[in-house]
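To: structure subgroup
Subject: Chain for Friday's discussion

All,

I'm putting the inputs and outputs inline so they're searchable in the archive.
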Amino acid sequence: MSTPHNEANPGDFAKTVIMPGDPKRAEFIAKNYLTDYKLVNDVRGMKAYTGFYKNKEVSVMASGMGIPSMGIYSYELYKYYDVDTIIRIGSCGNYSEDLRLFDLILVDETYTESNYALTLNNEDVHIAKPSEEVNSKIEDTAKKMNVKIKKGTTLCSECFDVYMTDKSKCFERMPKDIKVIGAEMEAFALFYNAKVLNKKAATILTVVDDEIHGDSADSESREKALTTMIELALESV
């Protein structure tokens, strides 16, 4: 059956979905990396495609921005379309001296101030983790591809961190044992949904804003730089 947010039919999605935030990026991946692909959803312009990457069926669908949007789309893929694994690929801000513009992060834990878990499932938790199995596969693939990735904890915020009035206050509120290396806006909802529904999830991020070193990518360079992350996700499938 379809949902209010997804017009796809049962069986239209592969077991593994690559999930960028931007619908245009989903379209780019389908057109440049998949064969025999077809558009399976375009409700609200949130494009989803299913095709083949090196003879392996895979889907790619946009999540939109933020915890609520990721929460809806990933929940429905898991629960109503029998998707087993979602690999989020996205951009992030940098909070580590060891990282530079366009470096890759593999999230092994994410912290949020959001009450998403409490609202969805009456569980007051603010830390969520990815699938160890999927993360291990991504790490192995990165080694084979000679792609450098840094594992670490990220902040999953409900507002764009660049717009925070006083970012230091957010860090002061964090538990003392939480040390974040980057910031994004979707991973917590994805990881928590996977936990609740007994599914698998992972998140790969590319640094596009680096306030520590005073660097920021423009739109054109962001698109070109994200290809390494896209190829790592697809090869991991």
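Points worth raising on Friday:
The chain has eight helices and eleven strands.
The mean pLDDT is 93.

D.
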